[in-house]
Amino acid sequence: MEQYWSGSAVNENKGMVYNLQRYGIITSRKVAEVMETMDRGLFVPGGLQPYVDSPMPIGYNVTISAPHMHATCLQLLEKNLQPGMHALDVGSGTGYLTACFALMVGPQGHAIGVEHIPELVSFSIENIKKSAAAQPLKDGSLSVHVGDGREGWPEFAPYDAIHVGAAAPEIPQPLIDQLKPGGRMVIPVGNLFQDLQVVDKNSDGSINIRTKTSVRYVPLTSREAQLRG
Ligand code: SAH
Questions:
Q1: Terminal C-alpha separation, the chain
Q2: Which residues are catalytic?
Q3: To test ligand 1's pocket by mutation, which of 189, 220, 227 has the most ligand atoms within 8 angstroms of CB?
Q4: Would the keyword Transferase turn up in this protein's UniProt record (predicted)?
Q5: Pocket flag, ligand 1, residue 221 (CB < 6 Å)
Q6: pTM over 0.85
Q7: Could you tell me the mean pLDDT of each successive run of 10 residues in the chain, 229 residues long?
Q8: What is the bridge-based pairing of β-strands 56-59 and 86-90?
């Protein structure tokens, strides 16, 4: 059958969200709303298929994560992305997830992206400017910074939510330190075989870790090692 909606980015983005709901990956109204509002097409380099459920190359030997991974992480972090909360996105790449975080935490909250490739930081800022998160970027409730995300971003710590978009051989201690009691971090851990781990910090500062699923992310590493490939 002819796709009567083809050519409309808004409807293609909606279709992607609809499918993620149908497959049970998006389970909440809030996450569906945010992903419907944030057009993924604005974050994927031209000539690629932004609404297909697959990672896409964004240069510098890395990829934008697949829609189902973004949706999974938004679901896991939803309770820690309430209005007014602080969220850190390590390895923010295209800026897509940082922008989603900004919509969730609202103008009283803070969404911070840290990315070690300066060109990707510039790319993400241009993408965000065209998106539904342009205002948060303007008013400062969303910011993206060049830095080594293994050190976190102490300036706005502690965080209610930390997302790591690249796989670490082990969980960097600064990220655990920058998690608020009651806070949650979602991080892929491992080398070739990786687990998506959910790290919850209790009110006494102790942590609980559980494994959600097996994943395959690009490594959280040094800029030099990444560019070497
Ligand atoms: N979550 C982003 C990008 C995922 S790819 C998106 O979906 O668009 C992982 C990103 O982590 C890449 O952009 C890579 O450059 C970045 N990265 C890898 N190691 C890093 C480090 N040590 N510090 C900061 N960013 C890092």
A1: 42
A2: 65
A3: 220
A4: yes
A5: yes
A6: yes
A7: 58 96 97 98 95 96 97 98 98 98 98 98 98 98 98 98 98 98 98 96 97 96 96
A8: unpaired
